[in-house]
């Protein structure tokens, strides 16, 4: 992921530096040619050079990092990428201004008059451009220093373009006071500041201002075939002359041609016109002004309708009056009719043998060499303009920024919609290269800005939207771009513009061209939804002005996302959004702690008691989230303190420790006694302060909770909160009032509480079974307290379970011992059975301690209870040691019978237990 972001940043940085080199040449040309300079031009040039050097430093660093396999942090590369795009936009604005100024300088009297008026009324352009460049310079300075420290100045200086070098030298000469003179046209007198070896790279501005380079000193085509393609300057006016190739691009965009490609396949074609001539006059490739349709007129003479570039068309349509993208005003729809069939076409003179692969490769080579004459002669000989799947001649010409070759290819039938193997169409290539003039001529020849270059790819118009290429967007709109077509990932054009943070004016322009403000993406989202989510109130207003429905779910009702954006919410409500379709929107505003949204909704008349999801109220949510400002605002606007949410507002104050809100609720009419149980809630949440406040304000300490029937006292007992029990008893809690159980029955589990509670009970013996409950809880201390309070040791629970049998059953030996030896429990008094029988059934292994305790206290093993005795139980268990123990202590009654009429011996014999029969016969008789 980090490598991908770094590669993208490097690509955009390179794009900006290439344009910077072009601008440096244009600026040098203007300084050289202008009769009078704008105020602040020299300062602007220095600011521009500072930014260029910083950009080249960063580019050199990124290239070195990429080469060595290092990666910068993703956040850093993303931020650099954004600043590179900003710098590119600043450069485009500066380039446009320079081109316009150069055009005025070269024009006649009318142009000079226009120049005078522009100087009079556009004095703020240079300060604005300087301000924009200054911001970019300050941000990128530290990044550049980082790379300078790691790479050194020497390596960075190697990457500086010739345009930068020339402009810097010219400014230095001017500042030293050297009289300025134009560079001569003779090669023998080059500028001293510019190395002669680099002069072949200079842009063909005007031949009166540059040094002519003889053909033999130029870089030959054969030399270029072995190295990657070089970027060249963008022709800002159609029909520009010899190209100026700046720094080599290390990453070729099209496949390299085979090394054996050469010019021999051209036969006797005349290539002399493909080179510059030694002349001081303005150079042109136009040989004739005769009709392009004349058979004797070469196609290099462009018709008048093809000489206007993309920017010129935009200016003629009133779409580019301002140089700055962010100052663009929305434009009305301007649509231009396109009829490709009426565009100029040229048929080759012959086509015999022209389809040879070598000639096709020669055509691509000529395009890369930017030799328009060779291209023209190859096409006229019959070499197809649509070379094939491996190479796309149009895209290659666009990437070379050669408008003349683009025009020639279209004249000879190149398909403006054919994409290359990389799924890039010619129009997409013009966007990538910033070559607006080529885009204009492609559109005239039928290029479709709505046609994706390949499945699952975006159309050229969508690409322009994604890249925020304002001029291309305007141009495509003029030529029929479909503003309602979805992008490759299923988004509408409007949504894509909003997510890309396009300016309002551009979005309004697309709306003026018919974009559906209610159109939905494949996920059901509308542009209005995205605008609200992004917090763009300007875009929300614009969409509503163009028919966006504020009540159309997209996918949610618009008021839901608008709750997070109070300004958008205010606009929507004022423009017809129906809050009745979003019950609970007030609670949502409260939940997200947006008091501004709450105020907007209250002002619009939304009910402050409306529930969200049929449960949650705004007032309870403000208590829950501890928002006193929203709490008081809601109460002041009619919120009902008795309308429940998941719980009542007064209860919410207790459960969320918001006691400070409770007096205000009561003052507003909150009822502490309906529903009952608020004091029990305070005990449950352990809030002594709240309990005291409630009791002081008249809440009964005996109120039961509606659901659990618990009282404050029983809850305090169940939670073992002794201090609450003491307070409640002191404040009038009745220990005889049943909650989820009787207080004394619950208190046996907590001896300390039982000790406090028993004195408050008039008749502890009235609660049957309480002694057995204490035994079952294994609370010997509670047993002692109950005995001390007069509760019987034989007190049975449910009339069946006696304390002694329960103690035996639960194996509480200490309680058994206490009941037998100190409390006086009867060892022969049955509970669920006789104690001795219960002891036999519960004894384990050789542990007969409980049995022996019972026998010592007089337990009779021969006593029959419900057809059973301890002797019979021992026989049934087949336990010889226990049987001997019983007989030794008490003897045996051999005549006793069980509930089926059998004696102990008969039972032993039926089971075949001879040992038991022998023990019984030899045992002594019971006394």
TrEMBL record:
Biased composition annotated in UniProt, kind: Low complexity: 286-298
ANK repeats: from-to residues: 523-555, 708-740
Pfam families in alphabetical order: Ank_2
Compositional bias of kind Polar residues: 229-239, 261-277
The keyword DNA-binding appears for this protein: no
Renumbered residue ranges of the record's region Disordered: 226-325
Protein name: Uncharacterized protein
Originating species: Xylaria flabelliformis
Lineage of the species this protein comes from: Eukaryota, Fungi, Dikarya, Ascomycota, Pezizomycotina
């Amino acid at each position: 992921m980090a490598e991908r972001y770094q590669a993208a940043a490097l690509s955009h940085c390179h794009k900006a530096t290439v344009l910077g080199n072009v601008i440096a040449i244009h600026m040098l040309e203007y300084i050289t040619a202008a009769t009078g300079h704008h105020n602040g031009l020299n300062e602007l040039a220095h600011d521009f050079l500072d930014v260029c050097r910083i950009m080249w430093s960063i580019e050199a660093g990124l290239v070195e990092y990429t080469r060595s396999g290092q990666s910068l942090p993703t956040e850093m590369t993303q931020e650099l990428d954004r600043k590179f795009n900003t710098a590119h936009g600043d450069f485009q604005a500066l380039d446009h201004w320079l081109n316009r100024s150069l055009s005025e300088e070269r024009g006649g009297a009318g142009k000079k008059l226009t120049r005078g008026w522009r100087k009079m009324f556009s004095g703020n352009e240079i300060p604005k451009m300087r301000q924009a460049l200054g911001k970019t310079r300050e941000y990128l300075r530290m990044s550049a220093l980082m790379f300078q420290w790691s790479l050194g100045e020497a390596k960075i200086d190697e990457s500086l373009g010739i345009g930068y070098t020339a402009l810097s030298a010219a400014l230095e000469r001017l500042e030293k006071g050297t009289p300025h003179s134009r560079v001569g046209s003779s090669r023998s007198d080059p500028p001293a500041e510019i190395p002669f070896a680099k002069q072949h790279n200079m842009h063909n501005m005007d031949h009166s201002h540059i040094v002519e380079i003889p053909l033999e000193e130029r870089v030959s085509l054969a030399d270029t075939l072995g190295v990657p393609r070089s970027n060249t300057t963008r022709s800002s006016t159609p029909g520009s002359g010899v190209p100026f190739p700046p720094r080599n691009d290390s990453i070729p965009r099209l496949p390299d041609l085979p090394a054996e490609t050469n010019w021999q396949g051209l036969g006797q074609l005349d290539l002399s016109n493909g080179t510059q001539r030694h002349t001081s006059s303005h150079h042109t490739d136009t040989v004739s002004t005769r009709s392009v349709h004349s058979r004797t007129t070469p196609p290099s003479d462009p018709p008048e309708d093809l000489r206007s570039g993309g920017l010129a068309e935009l200016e003629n349509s009133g779409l580019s009056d301002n140089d700055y993208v962010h100052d663009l005003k929305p434009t009305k729809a301007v649509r231009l009719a396109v009829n490709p069939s009426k565009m100029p076409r040229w048929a080759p003179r012959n086509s015999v043998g022209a389809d040879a692969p070598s000639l096709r490769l020669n055509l691509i080579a000529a395009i890369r060499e930017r030799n328009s004459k060779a291209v023209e002669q190859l096409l006229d000989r019959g070499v197809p303009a649509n070379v094939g799947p491996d190479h796309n001649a149009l895209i290659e010409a666009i990437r070379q920024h050669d408008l003349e070759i683009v025009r020639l290819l279209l004249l000879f039938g190149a398909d403006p919609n054919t994409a290359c193997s990389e799924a890039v169409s010619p129009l997409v290539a013009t966007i990538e290269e910033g070559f607006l003039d080529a885009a204009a001529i492609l559109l005239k020849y039928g290029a479709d800005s709505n046609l994706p270059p390949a499945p699952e790819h975006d159309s050229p118009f969508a690409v322009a939207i994604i890249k925020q290429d304002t001029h291309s967007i305007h141009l495509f709109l003029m030529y029929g771009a479909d503003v309602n077509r979805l992008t490759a990932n299923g988004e509408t054009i409007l949504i894509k513009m909003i997510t890309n943070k396009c300016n309002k004016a551009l979005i309004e322009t697309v709306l003026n061209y018919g974009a559906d403000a209610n159109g939905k993406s494949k996920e059901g989202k509308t542009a209005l939804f995205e605008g609200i989510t992004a917090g763009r109130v300007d875009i929300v207003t614009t969409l509503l002005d163009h028919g966006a429905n504020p009540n159309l779910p997209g996918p949610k009702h618009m008021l839901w996302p608008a709750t997070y954006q109070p300004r958008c919410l205010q606009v929507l409500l004022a423009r017809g959004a129906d809050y009745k379709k979003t019950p609970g929107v007030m609670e949502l505003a409260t939940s997200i702690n947006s008091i501004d949204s709450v105020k907007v909704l209250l002002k619009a008349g939304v009910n402050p008691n409306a529930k969200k999801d049929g449960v949650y109220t705004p007032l309870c949510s403000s208590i829950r989230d501890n928002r006193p400002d929203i709490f008081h605002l809601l109460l002041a606007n009619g919120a009902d303190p008795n309308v429940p949410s998941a719980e009542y507002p007064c209860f919410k104050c207790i459960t969320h420790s918001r006691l400070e809100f409770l007096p205000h609720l009561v003052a507003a009419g909150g009822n502490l006694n309906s529903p009952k149980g608020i004091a029990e809630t305070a005990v449950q949440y352990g809030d002594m302060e709240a309990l005291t406040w409630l009791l002081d304000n008249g809440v009964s300490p005996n109120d039961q909770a509606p659901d659990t029937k618990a009282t404050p006292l029983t809850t305090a007992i169940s939670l073992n909160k002794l201090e609450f029990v003491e307070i409640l008893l002191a404040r009038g809690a009745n220990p005889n009032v049943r909650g989820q159980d009787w207080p004394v029955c619950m208190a046996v589990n907590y001896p300390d509480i039982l000790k406090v509670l028993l004195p408050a009970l008039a008749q502890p013996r009235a609660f049957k079974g309480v002694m057995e409950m204490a035994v079952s809880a294994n609370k010997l201390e509670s047993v002692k307290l109950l005995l001390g309070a007069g509760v019987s040791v034989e007190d049975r629970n449910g009339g069946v379970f006696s304390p002694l049998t329960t103690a035996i059953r639960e194996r509480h030996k200490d309680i058994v011992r206490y009941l037998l030896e100190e409390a006086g429990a009867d060892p022969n008094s049955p509970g669920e059975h006789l104690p001795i029988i219960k002891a036999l059934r519960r004894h384990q292994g050789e542990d007969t301690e409980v049995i022996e305790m019972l026998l010592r206290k007089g337990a009779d093993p021969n006593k029959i209870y419900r057809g059973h005795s301890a002797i019979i139980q021992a026989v049934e268990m087949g336990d010889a040691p226990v049987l001997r123990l019983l007989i030794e202590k008490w003897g045996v009654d051999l005549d006793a019978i069980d509930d089926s009429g059998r004696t102990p011996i008969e039972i032993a014999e039926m089971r075949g237990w001879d040992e038991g029969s022998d023990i019984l016969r030899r045992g002594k008789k019971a006394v």
